[in-house]
Specification:
The protein contains 13 helices and 20 strands. The protein is α/β, with parallel strands linked by helices and 509 residues long. It folds into 3 domains: 154 residues, Immunoglobulin-like (Sandwich), CATH 2.60.40; 119 residues, 3-Layer(aba) Sandwich (D-Maltodextrin-Binding Protein, domain 2), CATH 3.40.190; 144 residues, D-Maltodextrin-Binding Protein, domain 2 (3-Layer(aba) Sandwich). The strands form 3 sheets. Strands 10, 11, 12, 13, 14, 15, 16, 17, 18, 19 and 20 form an 11-stranded mixed beta sheet that branches. Strand 10, helix 4 and strand 11 form a beta-alpha-beta unit. Helix 1 packs antiparallel against helix 3, helix 4 packs antiparallel against helix 13 and helix 12 crosses helix 13. The radius of gyration is 45 Å and the shape is rod-shaped. The two termini are 45 Å apart. InterPro entries: PBP_domain (IPR024370), Phosphate_ABC_transporter (IPR050811). Keywords: Membrane, Signal, Transmembrane, Transmembrane helix. It holds the Pfam family PBP_like_2.
Length: 509
């Protein structure tokens, strides 16, 4: 039953039922249909008199012509109509061929004392309603029912005629029982035509059925969304890159809206430390994933990568340096110690303070690969950023910080400082100022046309293949194929599947 396509079945039912209802109503039973509508049924109070003597007795189609005893009377007007989609011939009435009568109009607890045919939609129908054609009235005294017999009148689609009857009560009191038409059609039916005012019960039932189908589909759609999100119960610990931590945290929060069965723990302290932890601890623990800025280094043969997104990085400076743009060459010279004062690149008279991420940082490795290159000389020996702030040496100084948050705070607080960070974090931070590289800002299009150099690929690493029903596998599916892609995109990252070369998650065309 797990793989049973219930949503598809419901969709088919939702389409088929209205079609079948239409076919049943208008093709099968509704193809030939006579309707009758009681347009007036009202008692007559007081004594009846006619302005023209003899008119009321003449309503009675047979008898000796004597005026009837007109007491406790009622007047009824009934409309008989062809409301099907085809014409009705005399041979369509389901009564013996030898019988001229096709319809029987019954009036319980009343007898007919007078009747007349009125309002013919087609004068030709009058020939079928002449005396001798089967029209007449009678009384079923045993059951106290007055009856008007009507002939087998041929009626084109939309034709109608009316019967006006004067009736006298024979039993009971209060309201009269409703008139009833007794008849059958071959391949059709005779039914009372309800007023068009208001909503048909059948229509309401059909609407209710369709609403129920839509509601069930909606519920299953929610369940499908949950299944798409994974909804695997268990615990998932995420470690690694502090640069990508905000995006992963937000993605996990969104995942939790669809699946509350997964418990998340976050222990981000650097890409290298995350990789080491997964390598050492997760051989028998599929609930541990490392997020890394860039590919793993040597020494992790058991770790399997999965590309997540292309991430943008940016250079940041203390606002006091007075610089808004740097070339790649200038950045290399600054980190090599060849530029020792911001005046040399158009800034203020301040010594340069170079802030680096600690060894093992994925962001630092991305900076080295994309901005410095392999020919860059070794970075001068670093000291403490606090020491630099306290001593304020006149020469350029170098220090290191462990995580992204420390990088952003140090550059914001330390005069003359320069550093680097994941772009979305830097854009939201206060104090540190982003700078363009050779006039180009961090943007997806700038990377795709190879004008912006500072970017990297975010990876998720597991120790060996993940079981399909593990929390880690479910969360990775959410990040790469589900709503998680939108979360990554909202942080300025480009999901790998949206790049020209998604297999390597590279902007190369």
């Amino acid at each position: 039953m797990k793989d049973f396509p219930l949503d598809t079945v419901l969709a088919i039912i939702g389409i088929a039922v209205p079609i079948l209802a239409f076919v049943w109503e208008f093709v099968l039973v509704g193809r030939k249909r006579l309707g009758y509508r009681v347009q007036m049924d009202t008692p007559v109070t007081g004594e009846i008199e006619s302005v023209f003597p003899g008119v009321l007795p003449q309503l009675r189609p047979e008898g000796d012509g004597a005026a009837p005893d007109l007491q406790d009377l009622s007047v009824v007007l009934v409309r008989i109509e062809n409301n099907g989609i085809t014409d009705v011939d005399s041979s369509d009435y389901a009564s013996p061929d030898t019988d001229n009568v096709g319809l029987h109009l019954h009036f319980p607890h009343r007898r007919v004392i007078g009747m007349a045919v009125t309002e013919l939609s087609d004068d030709a129908m009058g020939d079928s309603l002449e005396p001798g054609t089967g029209i007449g009235c009678r009384e079923d005294a045993q059951h106290r029912v007055g009856i008007i017999d009507l002939p087998k009148v041929p009626m084109d689609r939309g034709d109608h005629y009316k019967i006006l009857a004067i009736l006298q009560r024979t039993a009971g009191a209060g309201e009269y029982p409703a008139p009833v038409m007794r008849a059958k059609l071959k391949g059709g039916r005779v039914a009372e035509t309800r007023s068009r005012i208001g909503t048909s019960p059948r229509l309401l039932a059909l609407i209710g059925f369709l609403v129920a189908v839509i509601a069930v589909q909606f519920v299953f759609g929610l369940n499908d969304d949950k299944n798409a999100a994974g909804c695997v119960s268990g615990k998932l610990t995420l470690v690694g890159s502090t640069a990508f931590e905000p995006a992963i945290r937000d993605a996990a929060a969104e995942y939790g809206k669809h699946c509350a069965k997964t418990q998340f723990d976050f222990e981000f302290d650097s890409s290298d430390r995350g990789l080491s932890r997964v390598d050492e601890e997760s051989k028998d623990n599929p609930g541990l994933l490392a997020i890394s800025d860039g590919p793993k280094g040597v020494g992790y043969p058991n770790l399997i990568p999965r590309t997540l997104a292309m991430s943008l990085f940016t250079m940041i400076v203390n606002p006091g340096v007075g610089v808004h743009d740097l070339s790649t060459r200038q950045i290399r010279d600054i980190y090599a110690g060849r530029i020792d004062n911001w005046q040399l690149v158009g800034g203020t008279d301040l010594p340069v303070r170079v802030v680096n991420r600690a060894l093992g940082s994925g962001t630092r490795e991305a900076f080295r690969q994309r901005m410095l290159g392999d020919d860059q000389p070794l970075t001068p020996v670093a000291t403490s950023c606090r020491t630099i702030a306290a001593t304020n040496p006149p020469s350029p100084a170098f220090c290191e910080v462990p995580v992204t948050a420390d990088m952003l705070k140090t550059v914001a607080d330390l005069p003359g400082s320069i550093g680097y960070s994941e772009y979305s974090d830097a854009a939201k931070a206060s104090g540190a100022q982003t700078v363009t590289i050779a006039g180009h800002a961090p943007a997806r299009d700038q990377v795709l046309d190879h004008t912006y150099p500072f970017w990297s690929v975010e990876y998720a690493y597991s120790n060996g293949e993940l079981p399909a029903d593990s929390p880690a596998a479910a969360f990775l599916r959410f990040l790469t194929d589900g709503i998680g892609k939108d979360v990554l995109r909202s942080h300025g990252n480009t999901p790998c599947g949206e790049l020209p070369n998604p297999t390597t998650c590279s902007p190369d065309k």
